[in-house]
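Example record used in the benchmark description.
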Amino acid sequence: MLSTGVGVCRMVLEFVYPAPFCGSGDVDTRPTVLTKVNFLHFAIIISAVSLISTVTVSLFTTPRPQNKLQGVTWWTRYERASPEESEVNTESAVDQNGITQIEDTMISSDTREKCLSIVIKWLCGYSHNSRSKQTKSDQSRIKNGLPSIYESPNSRRLLNVLAVAVSAATVFLLVFFG
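Model output (structure tokens):
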């Protein structure tokens, strides 16, 4: 988001301070970031900002425990055990009918009526009521409906051959027309 903000600031500056016409002899009075920094170099700067912000946020957050990474990371992608649910954003309790009550705790209860909290809930996809009901069968149906990354050996070979063919065609076209 930080890099997007920096890029949007540059775009707004481009619209606010238009470049003088070529050959007009007018003095370029635009800010230095527009006159001296090429947009391709600015893309490199945005990439660096993105990398630095990603590493900084990663270093300041606590790592997830190993039992919550089953099948989520590259190294555990073929493990059949599903990762444990995270309790960071939700609190759940099971009532006598086997229905799980889930309450979000991302926004404190004293600020729920504020307009900002309603907007945040809408943006994040939360409903206006603070509790939703899920039965055990609903939870298992949701988990079973998730896509799998398993590939059969035949489909893997076919996809690899097609990837090589597309790469070869791309190289041929670049060399032929380049």
